[in-house]
Amino acid sequence: MLEKLSTDNKVVGAKQVKRAIEEKSAEIVFIAEDADKKITIDIEKMCKEKSIDIIYVETMDELGDACGIDVSAATAALLK
Fold first, then answer.
1. Hey, where are the domains in the chain?
2. 21, 33, 51, 63: which one has the fewest Cβ atoms less than 10 Å from its Cβ?
3. Average pLDDT of each block of 10 consecutive residues along the chain (80 residues)?
4. How is the chain split among helix, strand and coil, in percent rounded to 5?
5. Distance CA 54, CA 77 (A)
């Protein structure tokens, strides 16, 4: 599933992921397990309220690599 982040329509970063969830355009949300909980707790809550699947990735570096960016990422989302 992580490989879809390199090719499909996506957003990366907490603000953009939150916006995608609010606009009901997020299909699946990816969250790095080593990300700061202050950043991810709201996103997890929003996903549960809107019944959006969450996939946990081991590290922020791994998530950033999967997204094809040069920096680590706490969260990302595939768009519908």
1. 2-79
2. 51
3. 86 97 97 96 97 97 95 96
4. 45, 25, 30
5. 9
